[in-house]
Each structure stands twice: as C-alpha cells, then as structure tokens.
Amino acid sequence: MSLRINDIAPDFTAETTHGPVSFHEWIGDGWAVLFSHPKNFTPVCTTELGTMAGLEGEFKKRNVKIIGISVDPVADHAKWQGDIKTATGHLVQYPLIGDKDLKVAKLYDMLPAGAGETSEGRTPADNATVRSVYVIGPDRKIKLVLTYPMTTGRNFDEILRAIDSMQLTAKHQVATPANWKQGEDVIITAAVSNEDAIKRFGAYETILPYLRKTKQPTG
Ligand code: BEZ
Predict the structure, then answer these.
(1) 3-class SS at 37?
(2) What is the pTM of this model?
(3) What pLDDT, on a 0 to 100 scale, did the predictor assign at position 124?
(4) CB of 44 sitting under 6 A from ligand 1
(5) Are residues 179 and 114 in the same domain?
(6) Cβ of 39 less than 6 Å from ligand 1
C-alpha cells in the first residue's frame, strides 16, 4: 500500500554522496525533504537538482534538510555534479542517495507502474524513479507527498511555500488559503470559537460563518 500523510516515513540505510546515511538519524530534530529524480544526465533532472541546490539556503533557514535519490550509483551522482553547475550555476551540496537495488524507491513507492526489479539494463521509461517529493516532519511523519511525471519539472518554490504553511499551522490554530504566501492573512480553524479567536488573534474578519481570516500570527 502506498504511503499516506501521517504515516511514519519508513527508515532505511543507504549509500549517498556524503557516505552511508541512516535516514531517521540523519533527519535529526528538524524537517526533511526526500525527493527522487528519474535519471542522472537527463535535461529536466539537471535543472531540478540545480534549482534545489540554489534553494538550499532557503531550506536551511527553515530547519529543513534536503536529500535527493535516484537508482543511479553514487559514483554517477558525483560525475554529474559538474554538468549541474554548468547548466544552472549551482553546486549540489546536499546528499544524493544511490539506490541501485531500488530498496528506497520501493519502500517509498517511487517507481512507476510496470517498473522492473533492478536498475540493470534499465531505460528511463521503465524502472527509473518518478519525480516524487516527501516532506517529513520532526516527528518523522509524512506531511506532504507530490508525484510528477517524467516530462514535468517541479516547482520547488511551492515546496518552500507549503513548508512555510505547515510550520506555521503546526504552531498556531490556523490554516492557509489557496496561493497563500508568507506574511499574508490566514484562516482561523473551526476548532477556535469566536470568543477565543478574539483572545488569540485580536481582530479577525468573518467572510462566511466558516471562513474567518486574520493577520498571520508571529512567533
Ligand atoms: C529528464 O529529466 O529530462 C528525463 C528523465 C527521464 C526520462 C526522460 C527525461
């Protein structure tokens, strides 16, 4: 069965460009993003990994570690770094898992329907990982899952935006509306009475009885 939001992210050990990693231990006490790409030395993946390298500081600011994965061997990941830098101007400094035996890919359901059993003799169309993203919280639970097809590069700013929302809503009894961005008004959750809303948030606006908005809480 596939992994769902609120499942504990499966733990694993793997070879990475930073040496062996024990996943839960590596996460530490912060957040983590585990994201897969189909294959090294391919155009969309090159732009994706470079984009993530450029955003690494933004993830760090939010106490989020990032780790990439494909079924290519670690040695190939290392060889690919120069191309990523040439194409995007960013050096990949986060670890990349070399999941040659597809262990993590299977554990996280990252393979497309009809995938093979090993990475031997594969083509990108068969047993390559799809473009999956798992955001994992400090409690080791899965907070967000995304799956994109081979032809469509991901918008990693959206991952940051969603993390901003998840970190805010983990602290305060609020939710964030469509297309919300850091600093914009938020929604007061149904669990908060009108009386309590005044105490907690000061002023708020009632748009509908079940849609109350207030300024983004700080702290
Ligand atoms: C790409 O990243 O461009 C790509 C990956 C797998 C198959 C085809 C293209």
Answers:
(1) coil
(2) 0.94
(3) 46
(4) yes
(5) no
(6) yes
Atom of ligand 1 nearest to the CA of 153: 2
CA gap 41, 124 in Å, rounded? 11
53 shares its domain with 91: yes
Atom of ligand 1 at shortest range from CA of 125: 7
Query: Residue 107 and residue 85: Cα distance in Å, rounded?
Result: 30
Find the 83 Cα to ligand 1 centroid distance in Å: 15
Asked whether residue 160 is assigned to any structural domain, the reply reads no
Task: Name residue 144's beta-bridge partners.
Answer: 135
What per-residue confidence (pLDDT) applies to 123? 53
Over residues 156-183, the mean pLDDT reads 98
* Per-residue pLDDT tens over the stretch 6-64: 999 999 999 999 999 999 999 999 999 999 999 999 999 999 999 999 999 999 999 99
Residue 99, C-beta contacts closer than 8 angstroms, at least 6 positions apart? 14, 69, 70, 71, 105, 119, 129
- CB of 131 closer than 6 angstroms to any ligand 1 atom: no
Residue span of the structural domain in which 203 resides: 172-214
* Domain CATH code at residue 49: 3.40.30.10
Task: Confirm whether 108 is a catalytic residue.
Answer: no
On the question of pLDDT at 172 being above 50, the answer is yes
